[in-house]
């Protein structure tokens, strides 16, 4: 069991410190470091002794190690890379499915069917059927642009009613329409969805509406370039 502890990412404060040690060693330019600092980083990144893995995991940091970690953690860009690396690892382990960027424009009905039938089974697919001339469609498109950035595991799509080939089913009075699928199954069919909002509505209103029906996953931890680092 002790041997296995080296192979996995540790949890808790001590595990975070050891993960940070390893990450710093891998991310720094070893050739440009002074020999003393290089040796200190090597020791920090390999805190386990062969015959005392459990005990060495719990060892205290030296003053030099603390100052080095404190100095490096003030490097905002490096800390962001570390956080992103941890999030990506967690994401892969939990198998949430693929991630997406922005809202996907569907060219025709065939593309519409393909995204419903062939997307990953764990992926929620939100499709906006719109018509440029119908009030509320443009505003809803703007809202979905915002939500796509906050829910990268959800595939947000849009298709004009003309391109969908289903104009007879989606007349102007039922637009904008928002359809939600998962694993090929229709979970939500919201016609004239803007009637559920005030005349002026925002992404938070659409988000709250979808959450009311339990259609959005838990929001990812924000890791944008402007994220605050304490």
Task: Compose a concise summary of this entry.
By secondary structure, the protein is an alpha/beta fold.
Roughly what is the average pLDDT, rounded to an integer? 76
Number of E-state strands: 5
Report the uncertain regions: 1-11, 47-58, 221-230
Oligomer: single chain
Strands in their spatial order, largest beta sheet: 1-3-2-4-5
Could you say which overall geometry the principal axes of the C-alpha atoms support?
elongated
SSE blueprint and pairings:
Blueprint: H1 12-27, H2 35-45, H3 53-57, H4 63-73, H5 76-94, E1 104-105, H6 109-118, E2 124-130, H7 137-150, E3 154-160, H8 161-164, E4 177-182, E5 185-190, H9 203-212
Parallel strand pairs: 1-3, 2-3
Antiparallel strand pairs: 2-4, 4-5
Helix pairs in contact: 1-2, 7-9
Please give a structural write-up.
43% of the residues lie in helices and 12% in strands. With 230 residues, it is of the alpha/beta class. Strands 1-3-2-4-5 form a 5-stranded mixed sheet, with helices on both faces. Helix 1 packs across helix 2 and helix 7 crosses helix 9 (203-212). It is elongated, with a radius of gyration of 24 Å. Mean pLDDT is 76; it is low at 1-11, 47-58 and 221-230.
What are the defining features of this structure?
five-stranded mixed sheet, alpha/beta, disordered C terminus, 230 residues, 5 strands
